[in-house]
Amino acid sequence: MKRFLTLLAFILFTTATYSQTIMSFKAMGHNDDEPIFGMSGATSFYFKITPQYEINGSKLVIYFEPSQALIRDRSYINLFVGTKPVYSGRLTKDSIQKIIFPLSKADISADNYLKITVKTLLTITDDQCRDLDNPAMWLKIKNYSYLSLVKSSKNFFNNINISNCFDSKTAVVYGSNPTLHDLKAVAWAYSRLKKTQTKNIGVYEVDKLPDSVRNYIMVGTMATLPQDKKSLVKVTPQSNQGLLYLHKAVTTVTDTVTRMVDVRGRLTPVKSVSLESVPTEILFVTGGDDAGYEKTITALGNMNVLNSTFGDYLLVNKAQNTFFKTIDENRSKLSLKQIGGVSDFLSGIGSLKSAFNFKNSDFSFTPKEVEIRIVANYSSLNPGDRGFFNIYLNGLLLSSEKLDASGKLNTSVTINRYQHHKYNTLEAEFRFYPNNGNCKNSFTNFFAEVDVDKSYLESKNPFITSDLSFYQYPEAFNSGTTRIVVSKPYAKYAAGAMGEIIYELNNNINANNFPEFIYSDDIAKTPSELKKNNIIALLAKDDPLMNEFPDAPIKFNRNFRLYNTDNNTIVYSLADTTSNGLAQIFYGRSNNATLVLTATGKHLADAFLAASKSITEQLSTLSSNVCISDVNNNKYLFNINKSSDNLEYIDTKSALTRFWDNYNLYILLGILVLILLSFLYIRSKVQKSQELFND
What we know:
Number of strands: 36
Distance between the termini: 120 Å
Number of helices: 12
Radius of gyration: 32 Å
Structural class: alpha+beta
Strand content: 35-45%
Strand order of the largest sheet: 28-27-29-33-32-34-35
């Protein structure tokens, strides 16, 4: 009996210490199957491995689907983990095939990234030269491929620290009656979490925190923290002193675990009850008083401080950031290296591509024209060889030129504002075809490399218009100082939206936009502040500050309707019962950038958040300055100016006019029916009279 109990205890302990977590490629951001094209193609995946996972004992499982046209026994797939080849094999006759590879610590880079590269060598015919551009040359990595990671609490206390704890956090928690300091802390914590590519970041009042959320950031001074949370902080900051403190604990909970079981090459979820050891992490952003708290918030906005704090707490005696930007900080010329580009050594035949991503907000201002300059080296062409260099932007071919025997490339193309978007993908493509007579012996002869230090993007002219649009957000706030203004009664509902705003203001290569926070009541006492600063205001619909924006496209504090100008139908009415977020962007009285958001309905926090997210998306228009979005992800964009005929204020009409607007169709229909009945009545009387006369 003792042996049985000992064995049972061992099993429970092992289950609590180690558990498998299945993370599909889709769950990690790869929503679609990843295709690999061409005779010799490749694709790479990068996954951040957070410290709570034990990589030893974990495994990688890749499912792939080859083209039905391939000669399977003469086509190959190769797997690289990091820079090391770990698997090579011929394709089999199965429609869906699988590779399983056990992982170890040696497979993870120093910054805890797992790089997976899949390379192919495919064959369709006996003639390799005919296979070069065959569209049937493809292989797809399925999005239900996955990492099976060992979640271990064995080294939990040693592995987790302030520098790496943000990767596992999923929420920000604040007090029920947040101060401006709390809102600022929430915004910067939210922004920091979003930089880790956390998809769904929760923002909760402390008394509404779900039990399922165990890893989060809590903000507030020591005096305002709930007593049960305050007792977890083992370091006490003094007056005028800030504190970042990471509380760590492991609890055993009974939970429902979903395992993915391989059924005929497809992953099928199977649920079971499991006793699991769950790490709990709370990062406290606090201080001995408001002055110390502000220092901690300042440190929270400094990535260098956060990334170099390898302990469980940090006392902040002094913190400094540049809280304003000047127009002198000109970022009109950016090298491809600055925007994150790396030098890829390309070799082979056919299409060889390097991709680079950039945003309009990487520049100091919205660019009107952008010069794309590419400097590269390549192997010289032999007589009879054919080589081309192509530049693509967002999938569209911009330029093409022939390669020659020099081996040097220095070319440029200038694009206008209609060709580039808020978020852009630039592709540099070398296409090489050897002389037909040497085709089979020339597959590795060609190589090329883009020089990311000498290649650059340069904004030639700023995009200046008489009216601001969301296309120019957030870079319209890059110059000068910015104030974030909030209605005091709506403050606790605006915290998540503020996080989105802070993230976007600093989502560029020179992230140092640190706006000040102020209540609408306070800034209304000094109207000059509304003129000398850029303003981002999150306001209640009836906030008196609304009257201080006479240049706003729409008066949100009045009932209005928006019409479709094509068919004169009502698109939106402010009286809608759905919770809506409303945003508008415009120039203030001193040509300062101004963004105003408000919310309606019962779900104010969700409405504010919906509006703040909608204006940062890749918009299809260059001129939208009003955005209305609801909590169901529906979004409407409008371009409203003083001469617009699709805007109507219904609160300026008399009761009789509003009655006529609402019921005019019914009234006209009733009149028409009365006329018809009168006609029929008179006709029947006339017929009777005629009959009597005839008799």
